[in-house]
Design goal:
With 640 residues, the chain is of the alpha/beta class. The chain contains 20 helices and 14 strands. Strand 1 (380-391) and strand 2 (397-408) form a beta hairpin. The chain binds adenosine-5'-triphosphate (ATP). Residues 380-619 form the ABC transporter domain.
């Protein structure tokens, strides 16, 4: 038999062996320490069924992939069988014409297997990616629908891990997982079938090394799993260390802690290296051992078969050559199966965590029969509202708002004032239904907000927070939030109205200026000005705003003040005021203290009442007055 023919028969299209490194761990780089308990020991039927739901839409493609795999699994083991026929039936008897047919069949089998393997790989990956796409979209939609209470409790890192690396861990299982396992099993059955039909005794000899192979594989799996877990744990530590230090880098630099932090990092990094090297150690033993055992099987075949063939028994040269190939082919699916076991186990751990995210539902309940809210006049009413963000261990709510009641009439401007932590921002969050109240009622135009669709409610109420969040992207994108109904002219008009146009045009790229992460390239005041434009563009009937306090230069402050007047014109407004000077014309001032509304009235009424408001006012007054040499004091901002 020509060496070319032999080479061609030895080609194996089955999956390449898993590389002797932790390539598939690369996706686990968002782990938090608490997330590292990731091995589940059993295959949970419930989890598999739930995962199966994501594959159901692709059932037809899965059947097709299985059929293709069956074909590919058959063609591989068929080749040695053809070689045997070629040698024994044609080469030995000198029938070259017959041999040509065998060569043709071999080439066809080889090409067929190549094509089918391509189809199998592509199709299984395609199915897996479709399922992953669906799952990730479901996860994001789920996360988007959660109330803010959920985000208060859930660390950002966890949500990221669940939607990225945990989903990724499922990817292999959903794509090649099932099909590959079946493919490997098919292959084993076909190889065993051909071996036993060709020569059962030689088949038994080939399989004699099996117990050794199984033992080595189990030994390797057990050890490497522990090291693998340790590596992930150390990787998680590196991640959280870097995450924390990048965020708090200015503190590290401010206090000259660079060297100490570097030492700490080196410590963690060293542990990671050690764990990784341990893993590599086991891999370095495993692969040569497997290679050795396969060759042992080969040697056994050569020894036993060779003696018998030469000894003139029924064993032919063709059978011997075929067995040499089967000995090589047989162990690959076994090794792949052990890899698949690991993949599936990781996937189960990922699935458990992904589903636990899906099962935690703290979304705001939609009304079963929502009230249609087309136009809003703008009456806002809080009726005996009680609210707590948290409960203590005994389940007693830690009240942040206690029996809060007030009413703002259409077109009125109401201001909320009070010391820090009094509950002002909470009132706003509740009006926009970011959280659910425990007792009482919040009404807009007489409708309980729980009877309104969230969309309607938030469409009619605009919010300008104190700390404005900007997405990375252009200023334009941040203003319009990619709403196609807002054209360029409308956007520019809105910017002019609140005089943000000058600010934007001063930026190097104007409206196309790239806003860096979270708008860190813009000052707090500038960001708030952009939020005014954004709010105006959505033209809400009620405006809720939290006045920016610090980090605002005088020019921006004047701009904000004017913007505020423009934006609140003709709209019901509820404003949190930090500078009492800005709310002297408010129709109503509500003074909050420790979650209660203690005083209410106009600026003059409240001053006259000589209570909390007066105290706040005097405090701010003192704060904003520059002492003069002659002892007289001049109010620079607040005129009484
Ligand atoms: N997400 C939250 N989870 C738990 N407690 C919260 C949360 N947000 C606010 N609180 C608590 O609720 C109370 C009221 O906070 P709130 O932010 O409403 O006060 P504020 O009057 O707006 O203060 P500031 O003027 O500083 O913004 C505070 O004690 C605060 O610690």
């Amino acid at each position: 038999m020509s060496s070319k023919l032999l080479d061609c028969c030895l080609v194996d299209f089955s999956h390449p062996p898993a590389p002797p490194h932790l390539a598939d761990d690369a996706s686990d780089d968002h782990f938090e320490p608490e997330d590292t308990v990731d091995e589940v020991n059993t295959f949970d039927g419930r989890l598999i069924r739930r995962l199966g739901q994501y594959l159901t839409p692709y059932a037809g493609y899965i059947v097709l992939a299985l059929a293709i795999t069956l074909g590919a699994s058959f063609l591989g083991p068929l080749r040695p069988w053809l070689v045997q026929k070629g040698i024994d039936n044609y080469i030995v008897v000198g029938d070259l014409e017959g041999l040509q047919y065998i060569i043709l069949y071999l080439v066809l089998a080889l090409v067929g297997e190549g094509i089918l393997s391509f189809g199998e790989n592509y199709l299984t990956q395609w199915i897996g990616q479709q399922a992953i796409y669906d799952l990730r979209t479901t996860l994001f939609r789920h996360v988007e629908g959660q109330s803010l209470a959920y985000f208060d409790r859930t660390p950002v890192g966890r949500v990221i891990t669940r939607t990225t690396s945990d989903v990724e861990a499922l990817s292999d299982a959903l794509s090649s997982g099932l099909v590959s396992v079946l493919g490997d099993l098919f292959k084993l059955v076909f190889i065993a079938y051909f071996m036993f039909t060709l020569n059962w005794m030689l088949a038994v000899v080939t399989l004699l090394v099996m117990p050794l192979m199984v033992w080595v594989t189990f030994w390797f799996r057990r050890n490497v799993r522990e090291q693998y877990r340790e590596t992930r744990k150390q990787m998680a530590r590196i991640n959280s260390f870097i995450q924390e230090h990048v965020t708090g880098m200015h503190i590290v630099q401010l206090f000259n802690r660079e060297d100490e932090e570097e030492d700490r990092f080196e410590g963690i990094n060293d542990k990671h290296r050690a764990a990784h090297l341990h893993t590599i150690f086991y891999y370095a033993i495993f692969w040569p051992s497997i290679e050795f055992i396969s060759n042992l099987a080969l040697a056994a075949v050569l020894w036993f078969g060779g003696f018998r063939a030469l000894g003139g028994s029924a064993l032919t040269l063709g059978v011997l050559v075929a067995f040499i190939q089967y000995a090589r082919q047989f162990f690959r699916p076994i090794r792949d199966l052990s890899n698949q076991y690991d993949t599936l186990q990781k996937a189960m751990a990922g699935a458990e965590r992904v589903f636990s995210l899906l099962d935690t539902d703290e979304s705001i309940e939609a009304p079963s029969a929502p009230v249609e809210l087309d136009a809003v006049e703008g009456t806002i009413e809080f009726k005996n509202v009680w609210f707590a963000y948290e409960e203590d261990d005994a389940g007693t709510p830690d009240w942040v708002l206690e029996d809060v009641s007030f009413r703002v009439e259409p077109g009125e401007m109401a201001a909320l004032v009070g010391a820090t932590g009094a509950g002002k921002s909470t009132v706003m969050n509740l009006l926009l239904r970011f959280y659910e109240i425990q007792r009482g009622q919040i009404r807009v135009d007489g409708h309980d907000i729980r009877d309104l669709r969230l969309r309607d409610l938030r469409e009619h109420i605009g919010l300008i927070p104190q700390d404005v969040f900007l997405f990375s992207g252009s200023v334009r994108r941040n203003l319009t939030l990619d709403d196609p109904s807002i054209d360029e002219a409308t956007m520019r008009r809105a910017a002019e109205t609140v005089q943000a146009d000058q600010l934007i045009e001063r930026l190097p790229d104007g409206y196309d200026q790239d806003v860096k992460e979270r708008g860190s390239s813009l000052s707090r005041g500038q960001r708030q000005l952009l939020a005014f434009v954004r709010a105006l563009l959505y033209d809400p009937d009620v405006m809720v705003l939290d006045e920016a306090t610090s980090s605002v230069d005088t020019e921006t402050e004047a701009l904000i003040q004017r913007a505020l007047e423009r934006v609140t014109e003709g709209r019901t407004t509820l404003a949190i005021a930090h500078r009492l000077s800005t709310i002297q014309d408010a129709d109503k001032i509500l003074v909050m203290h420790k979650g209660e509304i203690r005083e209410r009235g106009t600026h003059q009424e409240l001053l006259a009442a000589d209570g909390l408001y007066r105290k706040l006012y005097d405090l701010q007054y003192a704060d904003q007055v520059a002492p003069r040499g002659d002892g007289a004091r001049t109010d620079q901002r607040v005129q009484t």
